[in-house]
Amino acid sequence: MNIIDKPDQEILALAEPLWRDLIQHSNAGQYGAFVKNFSSAFALAMNDVVAGHQFANSELARNLSEDFDALGTIRRGEHVTVLYRQRSTKKPGEWLGRLVLGYENGEVRIFGASIF
User: Fold this and answer.
1) How far is CA 53 from CA 14, 43, 60, 61, 64, in A?
2) Is the CATH code 3.90.1140.10 the one for domain 3-115?
3) Whole-angstrom Cα distance, residue 105 to residue 68?
4) Residue 95's beta-bridge partner residues?
5) pLDDT tens digit string along 49-88?
6) pLDDT tens digits along 3-60
7) Sequence-ordered strand ranges (E) for the chain
């Protein structure tokens, strides 16, 4: 099964609850819950030290707004990237959110996530 074969609406429906979970757990600084939907390789790369530093030192990562918009998808190989317009509850302006999805062991997992 390849996620890039799904239509945009289905991909966005899969991605939105995952993005909302990331926002919720990032705001709360909950590392264990933050990585629960990560692929095994991505979870290993995002270790406790990296995540702890992000949560402790980023005002943006701890104050993400539930107000976001999906901008579209980009397909490549076995992964799809969903782009979001993300806002903060403390900082004015907008950021670009990126969520990379694919399948691991038959389940949709997060293979990358970032905010620029």
Assistant:
1) 29, 15, 13, 11, 17
2) no
3) 29
4) 86
5) 566 666 667 888 889 999 999 999 999 999 999 999 999 9
6) 999 999 999 999 999 999 999 999 998 888 989 999 999 988 876 656 666 666 788 8
7) 64-76, 79-88, 94-104, 107-115
